[in-house]
Amino acid sequence: PYNAPAEYDRFKTPDDFPELDDTSGKGPAELHRLAKLQNVHAIRRLQELYAAKILYVDHYVGELIKTVHTLGLDNNTIIILVSDHGQLVYSHPKDFNTDDHRSLYDADLHVPLIFWGPGIPAGKRLDVLASHYDILPTILAFENLPPPAQTDGVSLKGIIAGTSSEPPHHHLYGEESVLTPQYSIRNARYKVIETMRTGKIQCFDNATDPRELHNICSEIPVEASKLKAALDQHIQALIRQAKSYPDWQNNIGLAVLEPGVARLGETVEVAVGDGTVSAHVEALPVYDTDKRRPRG
User: What is the pTM of this model?
Assistant: First the structure.
């Protein structure tokens, strides 16, 4: 996300390594090396390059909309702008000292979702909880088609068009399992993140602390307890769903959630086609889903 053409690199400043960019030889490696040491100038330079890439994308979204207009397709075309994830850019060095997107902080999870087309009010902003899985039922609703029989998403058409004031979701859940297994839940104001390896719980007030830098679990015990209970129910539902498949015992990912599936350091036999292969469980410990403690 740092490799926009040079003409879009308009945010650089003299103090923040303006000579380093994503195409300047050792530039990227040097910026990341310094950023990992929390060099504020390197981090700002990466933020400048990230903003340049957003500017680049913004320009070509504008070109796309102009082309749709030129072709006379305004009245039968819906354009949706969304990102798959954000970017940490070294904003949480205590636990994720990286520019990557392997966390459940809003720097990664909070992404743009913009609808453009007939029946969609121009310039309207909505402060509601929504997710990627709402996009499909929303598209179908705008086309007056029924939603799929099974979907976790809901249509946003009513709240976009102003015919409904009911929030599409009261809670949203997040999951990260690549680097550090975590689960999260949030409502309109608060978020709870649970780190499965340690049982650590973090609570954030997204209204007053949008960068999620201050853990306030002790300050909101009632709200934190309610969200934690709802998150536990969600995790149990995931376990039940995983166990509905005939080969669930080969699901090494369940080792994060439930004892007896696979243990840290064990070699397990995983069915593949007509045979089996050995898989050594090196990264994922086993947790008690009720007490969230490492077991054995």
Answer: 0.82
Q: Which amino acid is at 37?
A: L
**Tokens 């104001």 — which residue?**
189
Give all strands (DSSP E) within 36-116, no chain letters: 79-82, 113-116
In whole angstroms, how far apart are CA 249 and each of 3, 152, 269?
43, 25, 10
As to burial, measured by CB atoms within 10 angstroms (0-12 exposed, 13-18 middle, 19+ buried), residue 57 is middle
d(CA 286, CA 254): 8
Give dist(CA 228, CA 218) in Å, integer. 13
Position 258 scores a pLDDT of 64
| Per-run averaged pLDDT (10 residues), the chain, 296 residues | 91 94 79 93 94 96 96 94 94 89 94 93 94 95 90 93 93 89 95 92 97 96 96 90 80 63 41 40 37 38
What is the C-alpha end-to-end distance of the chain, expressed in Å?
42
Cα 287 from Cα 200, distance rounded (Å):
12
Q: How far is it, in rounded angstroms, from Cα 195 to Cα 7? A: 42
- Indicate the length of the chain as a whole number: 296
Q: Which amino acid is at 84?
A: D
Helix (H, G, I), strand (E, B) or coil at 276: strand
